[in-house]
Design goal:
Length: 222
């Protein structure tokens, strides 16, 4: 089964001024306006999501949030509501990034709740997974993460999940994980998915790599 390739970018909080934030989606439209065989997405910082959404709406480039609160609405001061993402026409939500876990102490239970919320409202969760140290047992670590993050997820919605394999030791570094290592990790992820959720799900779920990607190494890591 052929999966549609997907390529995207999170701006974290590096680009936060509205004028600057519009440059990237504008260039993406110019370059990829006729692209149909690849899904594209952009995840701007929370303060620029609205203006970026206005630029990208009605284009072939998807957009969304880098994080959401655990419920559609409620007493969650400082969080971004999924309801706002939906209202802005967002399609994607990045969840479980290593920085959210390390800095904001998000655990698997909380991230799992956000994943279920996102799927229940027909948006696409981009679920970040990856070992913190290269010396770890990668299969054991990824199996623990995947089964914890997908706990109680509706199996009929699993094919809409995207996994972003982002080994923590490669995030924000000069060098990414090498292509051979990444492809080996992808294989392990699919084997874990097949073991717990079946071959059909394993074949349909898309996996992307994140962690010090550049124009020089992007092709090898695809």
């Amino acid at each position: 089964m052929k999966r549609k390739p997907i390529v995207g970018m999170s701006l974290k909080t590096y680009i936060n001024k509205i004028d600057e934030s519009l440059a990237i989606p504008t260039k993406m439209i110019e370059k990829f306006k006729n692209t149909k065989d690849i899904d594209l997405f952009l995840l701007p910082s929370i303060g620029t999501l609205y203006p970026v959404a206005k630029v990208l709406e009605k284009t072939n480039i998807g957009y969304g949030a880098q994080n959401i609160g655990p419920e559609l609405k409620g007493p969650f001061t400082g969080e971004l509501s999924l309801e706002s993402v939906i209202d802005l026409g967002g399609k994607y939500v990045e969840l479980g990034h290593a920085e959210r876990k390390r800095i904001f102490k998000e655990d698997y239970e909380l991230i799992n709740k956000k994943i279920i919320l996102t799927l229940d409202h027909s948006l696409i969760p981009i679920i970040c997974i990856g070992e913190s140290d290269r010396s770890m047992d990668i299969r054991k670590e990824l199996e623990k993460q995947i089964t914890s993050l997908l706990k109680d997820v509706d199996l009929t919605k699993l094919e809409n999940v995207i996994f972003a394999y982002e080994p923590e030791w490669a995030i924000g570094k000069e060098k990414s994980a090498d292509a051979k290592y990444v492809h080996h990790a992808f294989k392990i992820i699919r084997e874990i998915l097949e073991k717990y959720y079946g071959k059909d799900v394993s074949k349909k779920i898309r996996i992307i790599y994140g962690g010090s990607v550049s124009k020089e190494n992007a092709k090898d890591l695809a």
